[in-house]
């Protein structure tokens, strides 16, 4: 075959796409097996597993975003997504022990005791340790920290442990909530006119496989409710939007930042539903008074959020001439200004029913319909929160994955994958200088990705070779 008649790689057929995905999925499956093996015996290390997982994941994204698909493609994606999680289901959590607190809180409630009343090590709970010794032994901060998890999370802990208090079943429940998230994303992608195969960005994300499939983090539940809230907002269902956003907030606090983007002026059923969910949730545990907020204040202090040592951008100013005297209060003022600007943007655009329904720059860039004008503001609020508050644990950024599934963004991918990888390196073990160096590498990579994204969006070859107009939407 001559070069003139050769078929360019970006004009591959669907069966070639499927073959490539099978190969990449098999590689990710083997790496997931290797992750479990690393729990017992060092081979290539967690950083080796995470690094290669990111490479294969990004390769799969490039293929699914640029190549044709057929009726078999989604089945391949879903089969491997399930396989990744089944591998992580049975082995005990290794990278995080938070799941043991979930189960313990459920056990305490079965004894008709509020989980907010006592720390796990309190003598008042001595009678629960015998039949639940394994849970107790693995709880972190058990001697000084009350539970930090909000009421909806506590209700779920109660229900899950009522059925089966084992770690395997708790992880199963978290994976099932991932299925609910995927369901919401598939519905939303369909209504946005995006082919369902783009759900690979969520289904194959190694961060989710590690932090939800392996460690069983509660963020899975918040993601599910958040995904349903986004779907309800697109469908103009204010009561359901408020209900699901309230459930997300009462599971993990951070989805509260999405409120300015999901609210529409004149539709007060949405905030009313949200307030009802929050009020009912806290009323159910009001017998303990202010203890219902648990270890939140202690966690803020422990992580350095009150002293400013937690925030990379603030720490960075301490190394810049003329800014090294910047106080924590000044940084909080800066954060307030940033979010004020974002809230005003939301108020004038997606919150305004009278906003002209024409393709804005944000919807044109990502190919969204005008009815989805809230997606980019919501994504911006979530991403900005993460950048400004510099989470140290990868599961805190899991809630960005549904957004990049809807609107793939190179900068956000660099942040998500970068933090996931960096947290498996030796830099994540220490604090202070090592944590600062980790964030310098991470934020430097994010800034480079931001510049690269600008260049690619203005490079004509980029659109022809690396994007594919939505087709065969099912």
Number of helices: 23
Helix content: 55-70%
Query: Could you give the order of the helices and strands?
Result: HHHHHHHHHHHHHHHHHHHHHHH
User: Biggest β-sheet: count, sense, barrel?
Assistant: none
List unreliable stretches of 5+ residues. Answer: 1-9, 462-474
Number of strands: 0
Mean pLDDT: 90
Could you say which overall geometry the principal axes of the C-alpha atoms support? globular
Radius of gyration: 23 Å
Oligomer: single chain
- Beta-strand percentage range: under 5%
The end-to-end span amounts to: 36 Å
Structural class of the helix and strand makeup? mainly alpha
Pfam families: MptA_B_family
Transmembrane segments: 12-36, 42-64, 76-95, 243-263, 270-288, 331-351, 372-390, 410-429, 441-459
Keywords: Membrane, Transmembrane, Transmembrane helix
Protein name: DUF2029 domain-containing protein
């Amino acid at each position: 075959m001559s070069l003139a008649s050769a078929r360019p790689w970006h004009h591959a057929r669907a069966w070639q796409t499927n073959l490539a995905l099978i190969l990449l999925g098999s590689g990710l499956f083997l790496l997931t097996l290797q992750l479990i093996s690393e729990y017992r015996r060092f081979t290539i290390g967690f950083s080796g597993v995470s690094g290669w997982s990111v490479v294969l994941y990004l390769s799969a994204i490039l293929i699914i975003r640029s190549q044709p698909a057929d009726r078999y493609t989604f089945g391949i994606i879903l089969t491997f997504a399930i396989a990744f999680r089944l591998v992580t289901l049975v082995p005990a959590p290794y990278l995080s022990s938070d799941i043991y607190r979930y189960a313990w809180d459920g056990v305490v409630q079965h004894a008709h005791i509020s989980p907010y009343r006592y720390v796990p090590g309190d003598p008042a709970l001595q009678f629960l340790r015998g039949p639940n010794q394994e849970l107790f032994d693995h709880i972190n901060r058990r001697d000084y920290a009350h539970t930090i998890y909000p009421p909806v999370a506590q209700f779920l802990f109660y229900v899950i442990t009522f059925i089966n208090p084992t770690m395997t079943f708790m992880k199963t429940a978290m994976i099932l909530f991932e299925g609910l998230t995927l369901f919401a994303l598939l519905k939303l992608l369909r209504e946005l006119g995006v082919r369902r195969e783009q759900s690979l960005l969520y289904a194959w994300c190694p961060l989710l496989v590690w932090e939800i499939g392996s460690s069983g983090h509660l963020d899975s539940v918040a993601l599910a409710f958040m995904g349903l809230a986004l779907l309800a907002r697109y469908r103009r269902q204010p009561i359901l939007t408020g209900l699901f956003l309230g459930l997300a907030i009462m599971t993990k606090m951070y989805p509260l930042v999405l409120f300015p983007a999901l609210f529409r002026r004149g539709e007060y059923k949405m905030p009313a539903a949200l307030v009802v969910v929050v009020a009912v949730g806290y009323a159910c545990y009001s017998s303990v008074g202010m203890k219902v907020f648990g270890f939140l204040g202690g966690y803020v202090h422990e992580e350095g959020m009150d002293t400013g040592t937690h925030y990379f951008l603030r720490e960075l100013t301490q190394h810049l001439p003329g800014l090294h005297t910047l106080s924590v209060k000044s940084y909080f003022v800066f954060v307030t200004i940033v979010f004020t600007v974002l809230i005003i943007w939301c108020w004038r655009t997606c919150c305004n029913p009278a906003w002209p329904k024409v393709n804005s720059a944000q919807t044109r860039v990502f190919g969204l319909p005008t009815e989805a004008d809230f997606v980019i503001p919501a994504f911006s609020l979530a991403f900005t929160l993460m950048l400004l508050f510099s989470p140290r644990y990868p599961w805190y950024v899991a809630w960005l994955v549904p957004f990049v599934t809807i609107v793939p963004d190179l900068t956000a991918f660099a942040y998500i994958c970068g933090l996931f990888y960096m947290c498996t390196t030796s830099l994540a073990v220490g604090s202070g200088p090592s944590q600062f160096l980790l964030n310098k590498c991470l934020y430097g990579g994010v800034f480079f990705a931001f510049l690269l994204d600008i260049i690619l969006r203005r490079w004509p070859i980029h659109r022809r070779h690396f994007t594919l107009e939505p087709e065969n939407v099912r």
